[in-house]
Amino acid sequence: MDWADFRAGFSIVQLDKNMTWASRPILSVELGDWDLRSAVLTGKQRRLEKYLIYATELGLRGILKAQKDGKNVTRSLILADMDGFSFQTHACPVCVSLLVGWVLTMETYYPNFIDEIIVVNSPSFGVAVVNTIKSFMSPQTRNLIKIFDHNKNLWIKYLDARIDRNQRPLRYGGTRTEN
């Protein structure tokens, strides 16, 4: 399936050459750049749901590639950037239900594929949105989420303990300029 119409507006990148200290692949989700409401209002919700499944498959491909390269890897790390996240564009009831559906799909069809979800640049209301989504998750998955506000020093320190700066894109306080 061709996802060209979604790639630009709903950036999810498998950072193929980037790994955590534990050699886990990294999936970058630029959530704050997404216009969920527009996709819902223009009748593209079902296609977006399929695209999110495709994105999950990207994370799985990163794991399989690492295994093929001889690494003992079974999980992926997800970095999510909420910079630009707005209540109207991202937190409308249908938008939140779309994100809940994505999480439930990951838990049901891709159990234990996530090592950790690190959310950075969350606005103050973003914690409430994430907590709403977390309420639908299993306790095991719920405990994998670490959320940070715009205090870059705090989340950079946290990321530094998990991912070398030369393995992280600039967006996440790293030095890497290409995938």
UniProtKB/TrEMBL annotation:
Signal peptide span: none
Name of the protein in its database record: SEC14-like protein 4
Domain of life, source organism: Eukaryota
Gene3D superfamilies: CRAL-TRIO lipid binding domain
PANTHER family (alphabetical): SEC14 RELATED PROTEIN, SEC14-LIKE PROTEIN 2
Domain CRAL-TRIO positions: 22-179
GO cellular component term, pick one: cytoplasm
